Amino acid sequence: MSKANNPLNDPSRRSAETQLVHGGTHRTNFNETSDALFLNSGYSYPSSEHAERLFKGEIPGGHNYSRFANPTVDVFQTRMALLERAEAGKAFASGMAAVSNAVMSQVKAGDHIVASRALFGGCRYVVEDFMPRWGVTSTLVDGRDPENFARAMQPNTKVVFIETPTNPTLELVDIKAVADIAHAHGAVLIVDNVFATALYQKPLELGADLVTYSATKHIDGQGRVLGGVVLGSKALIEGEVHTLLRQTGSTLSAFNAWVLLKGLETFPLRVRAMTESAAKITDVLASHPKVGRVIYPHHTSHPQYDLAKRQMRTGSTLVALDLKGGQEAAFKLCDSLSVILISNNLGDARSLITHPRTTTHQRLTEDVRLETGVTPGLVRLSVGLEASDDLITDLLYGLDQI
Hints:
The chain is built from 15 helices and twelve strands. The chain has two domains: 11-262, Type I PLP-dependent aspartate aminotransferase-like (Major domain) (Aspartate Aminotransferase, domain 2); 268-400, Aspartate Aminotransferase, domain 1 (Alpha-Beta Complex), CATH 3.90.1150.10. The protein is 40% helix and 14% strand. It is an alpha/beta fold.
């Protein structure tokens, strides 16, 4: 019986869960079931003419050097593009490499960037400190109000850069509204979508031009390797994004790509379970007397709850707690936990907690930290795969020690 007419031969008919197992698969003549791992740097050519055509870009999907393209990395890029419903994607050695490329590839000296002020410390450094060295200025705004972006736009604004939800305060930015503003001024909108994940928020469908991920987080999700990816239109990805990657070499290794492909196979199962636990933890801690506030996008107490419901399918896996006792209380909580580990990573199978003021955002001034909600009592919890009852017991014990 022939499978030629099977409707699932069309990748667009497959669900996300199926795409993350089968999408982009390219089997060798050995017909292996698991994706093949190509640990090689270079490739030989059947003729000099073939090599010439490859370097001219005249042979689609050809390989001439693994800094430019690698078969294992190709599969990861294709699978991520299918998940994101993007035309194309490029993989990078880390999440920060992906963000840096996305921003730098779209600007030149004399250009201007508008960004939300609530950013991960490394992302803020790229926009606020690094880009001005090359003649690219920036304006940071309170991203909760789209009109702040409109007021900050200048004739030379070429990029608008946001994260939503933000790291670590879980503020939201209205992607569609900001996309409309950016495009009205001829600018490209870049969205860091790490916290929401590609399962629960689709920035490209809301008008974003490029989406970035630290694949180190939920995509690997088991604390093994670094990686990043930028996704968007074929024109942007195969244009300046690829050119900058090719010439600067922030390439994802084939081994890391292979590990990330293994992570994608269980990605929906892991993130779904982690999200269910995050919601339960939020409900339990929302009224705790030692917690000033719990911040979770899909909890009714979140000041942008309506926006969260509109642009996020769920609240995802991160919860922030602002403790009434300040930094002393935050340290006491973190140091009393048994199952939850102190670490600045997130999206891991293990639940992780961090104090942003003294770790991920320590290089910022105190005024900037307070301006962006990084208070002395704020802790960020990345919920893992442990039993939710155990995590709640751990947190309640830690709170009792304050």
